[in-house]
Amino acid sequence: MSTKRVLYGLVGLYMIISICQSSYFLARRDWPFYKHIYFCVTNSSSALSWIEENITEKLDYVSKYIPEQPNGEMNYDIRDDENTRTDFIKHPWRLQTSMQSNFNHLIFDERWEAMNVIKTEYVEISFDKLLYQHFQNIVLKKESFDIPLSIRIENEGHIFLCDGEYPPKSRCYWFMLQAFSGMGSAIRKCEKGYIPSEDGNLPQTPCNEQRVYKNHTIVPTYLSNKMWSHFVLSKHKHVLRFSQFSDQEEKLIMEWEDFDIPIDVTHIIVHSKGNNGLWKIHNLDFLYADAASSDVNLGPPIPSADTFVCISMYVTMCPFCKLVLSLEDGQHVLKTEEFELKHAGWDQIKIMTEKANTSDAIKLLVTTKSSDPKPYWAIDKVRLCRKKEFRMLELSKRVSCQLISDSEQVTDVKGQSQPNLNSKCPEDAIGEFCVPCLWLPTNCKYFKVCNERKCVCSTGYFGRDCHQPCARKTYGHECQKQCTNCNYDCDKATGTCRYGCLENYSGKKCDIPPAIFANPPEIIEISYTQATVRVSNFQLENSVSYPTPQHYTVQYKTADVSDINWRNVSDQNHEFNSTGNFKILNLTLGTEYLVRSVIMGPNGEWNINHHLKVNNFATRCDEISEDDINIETSKTTARIYLSEGTTLTCKSYSITLDEKGADFSNRSGTFFTNLLPYKSYMVRVRGIQKTYEKKFTTDEAAPTFVLSLTGTAASATTVVLKWAEPLSINGVFNHYVVQYQHVSYRGCNFSSVESSTKSRRETENTSVTITELIPYSTYEFTVFVLNAKFSGPPVSQRTTTPYCHTIQPEETPNIVGINTTHESIILSVLKCENIRGPLTVEVKITCISEWCKNRIDIKTLPKTGIIEVINLQSFSEYDLEVQLCRVNGSCSVPQKKKFETKTTVSKSVSNLLVYTKNASSVSLRWKPPYPPTGVLKNYKINCTSYRKEVVEETQIRRCKLWPELHCATLNGLPPNAYLTIKVYARNEAVEDYSPPREIQTYAKTEKSKPPYDLMLNWTTKNDMQVVWKHPNETNGEVSYFGIQVIDLTLVQNEIIDEQKLNVSRETYDLTYNYLFDGSLLSPTTEYKVAIYAFNGEDGDSAQEMTTSPLDVPKLSDDPEFVISNGLLKILVLPNKVRGSTHTYQLLVLRSDKQSNLELYPSLQEHELKNLKVIVECDLSQISETLEIYVGSLQQHPRCKGKDNSSLKPETTGNITIVLQNFFENDCRTTIYTYNPMEKLKRVVVNPNYYWPPVLLILGLVVIFFGLTIRRGRLGAANLARPTWRETFWRKANLAQGHFGASHLGADHLGANELAPRKIDIIIQKLYPLLA
């Protein structure tokens, strides 16, 4: 990119892609006695804009091209009109807008000027209707979009993206730009009716919630009323972004992702607060194609007016796309050029040819090529262009001009000295890029040309307002050129000589000199009164366009500058090229003369000018002798004079002393002053024929000062002084004197010169070493030289000794004093005279009071031993630690102390509100001042109404419901009065009260504010527990809380239950709760609970929505089990679940160390160990009793066995039945665990708990031992075939909780095993109990 220069007015430079070179300037036409006319001109394709700091009008002017294009030349802005449809809409090219396309770039070129401008105005009338400005031509129809826009506003700019045209009646995203007096920016989301329609009103909750907030520490940040700024506002699905584009870089300002229901944005509306604003959305029409094509004729035929044809257009295309332009005259291809863009965005391209030597019309053919999978091309503003052209804005008003592409601007600044602004241009052009004056009004007369730095006048003028023509004999840019050969003067712009030329010069500017001899006449012979000269060399100067001379003559005169009369040697003219000797007679002896040759011009005039070549000679005279010359000297002067009686036959002698010259015209002699003392000189006395030289020496004087005095520190206590010899000793050298004195300690801010003494050293050398100095101090060293008679002037140099690298003993900090104020302390830690190096004082102050657990770390380089620490918290206790350190890390031992800051005036109370009131009293609540600035003593309450003023001092009283707050009640107030209440706080030991905290209210009962912190919880029994807190503002005495339960699944959102919780002043509590019976509520149902306080009228309600949990799965009755043929059969009847369900299942588990519970994630949270799922049943369509078999894979059709192997003899363990109800991401589980021989235990488990069954086996153990004894008495001979019960008891070990699982058949029993009838009866009676 070329160097960017900004010129406010007129500029020009030919460019193909000119947006990269942004040059422009301003010219002001300033005719005397007429109004100013301003011109802003650019050679680039960038847009221009007038800028008025106070935005009162739009100033949306469109620039025009200069030189102006003839009427009828092709110049098409692509838009939806007849010309575009006829000449440009050709397959595959079609018309499209920025908002419709899949790209929407920022536009900074000239098309920006024609975009629609919306002005937002702020009316300062309170509660007037807010002025919302709607972009009528912008309709957003896509879920995702980018909106490029330009803004000019000081601050408080507001953008609304809405689903309607009027924000107060629409859902909107609200972008607040440099809001809150410019201190911050934010994004809000507002529902319909929440945005205010009148000034002075605030948005309602939750519209006032700032979803994103960005704090601005420096104002302004990105908006300005002094220039246009450019942004992109985008919405991509749920993500909103607002970014600024400056210097071709993107700067993100705000971003927010809307996770809630997004707004279907269709309109963009703007508004300004506190100031006026200007807004532009970058939206335009253009030609668009998304398919490759070949030789499409775009535009009308181009008439061939001359041999040069140039067509300009703006294009954009995909990264791998190309655009080929061709110019044809019907018979020949005049020019073909291929274009591709290296970056996103629009560029200006031009195709031109100088081969159009035809009478046929020329066609523009467009070809598109691409390797991109999603190609696109766009074309806009097709026009005929010039080789050299500019664009210009014109305005009769003093404003600034901004170049939109660079955000630069210039104005009509004062002053004019700006070199090189016009200097490289001819006189008939102005500006850095030489805009021809013929293209500008009045041919640049009285123009003032400005860039962003300074201004200059147009050619031929100067002065602050460029009213004054150039001075006499000057012309051109900045009046820098001379017209010296003109008679009287020249034209101030062009330099043309209006009244003829001087000295035979010729040409319009009299800049062609006449022909002259290249060499002067030769001197042949000189005597006392005559001389002979010769003309033999006839070579000429300036003879290129000069005719051959015919005659010449020889002229002479004395060398005296006062003699201006040249005399001819003879009266005859001599033929040119004829050599001649010329004798000059009647000369004065001892006199110098000049002689020259002069040519006669073609018109008989002599070519005489100041460039003629001359020679000089002097006539002879009698000389003086060397002995006649005398010299008299002093320190700095010398007098050269002649001895008395000396006769001068020659008129003058020249006397030279160095470069000083004189003569003997004064008989007292010649004086030479300002000579150097004690220096030898040579004087030369030159006569007509002889020169004499004499030497002399001036007298001795004081030496000059020594040179280059420097002091270099060799160590902390040593300085080496060096200097150079004086320019002149002015006598015989003696020695140098060195004096030195302590000036100051670097650790102090005062000088020690007055209290210190000077020390003295003498030396013959130009250096000396001074030792035993104080470290880290400043010394003044003085050096002067002495010769045999005089001492020279002193030269002083101040030098600082280095510091000690380690902390010295005298530098140990000593907190000698702490001056404590209310919010600051002053520490005295060290005497500055003891500082021996740069110290960092590290102060650590830690507040140990509970309200200010903060720490202040200060590192400072002390200029004194005093340190002040401010911004401390009053009425607080602090720990202080002070340590001194060198820059190299060496530190002293820390010193520690404690201190307390003093009590100050109390801070204001906060969170002041009226929590209840009636017709004659008001109860207040507030938060005590925090952090405390002292011990709180009391409060003062000032209550003012239109009838009277009440002032009460009240002691500290904590609130019953809010113990951390303080409360007070004002009684006996005027009924229904409008009250202004101020609360002041006062600390002990302080007379003044705090600044007040103010609130306004009416002395009357009003409806209560809603309760807060409403929470809804569900118990394990599906009961709903409602918890809320007492309203902050009841505005009256509450008698009960109304609690409503609303079923949101019903069409009318009916209230299915409403309860009252009675309260009184004595039973008020901060937190309340109420329990709704879950059996009255439906599972998986969406409810809304509303709670309000009743104080004579229903208050505002707090509302919360919830969804009831899943129904708890249960068994209708205890399951039955039967052991038959080696299988355990379980009869189960589950209840049908209420509400929504996705999966309703039953699982049967038995003891097994090889568990498979990892396959069931919903059981992981329950403490089920060493269990395996053996049966899984789908209960979604089962309403009858299920038969489930343990030890078999054959199951009910809705069940399936999973590794349900046969039971082996002596198998032990429990059986667990699990019921699970699933819906969405929730699960409700009930677990039953039992032993077949014991009473069934049922456990209802919520998702977090499991209760294992309790096995009651004590009774079984007693029965077992009783039966064993009985069987021993009966004897083996009396046994019959056993019943299945006897066999079961033989196999079962009840004491250990085992159950038999073997095959019970005759093949395993003896023939004589028959149980007595009594045992059978006992078992028959006990078995139902065991079962």
UniProtKB/TrEMBL annotation:
Domain Fibronectin type-III: 705-809, 908-1008
Organism taxonomic ancestry: Eukaryota, Metazoa, Ecdysozoa, Arthropoda, Hexapoda
Record has 4Fe-4S as a keyword: no
Keywords: Membrane, Repeat, Transmembrane, Transmembrane helix
Residue intervals passing through the bilayer: 7-27, 1249-1269
Name the record gives this protein: Fibronectin type-III domain-containing protein
CDD domains cross-referenced by the UniProt entry: FN3
Matching Pfam families: fn3 (PF00041)
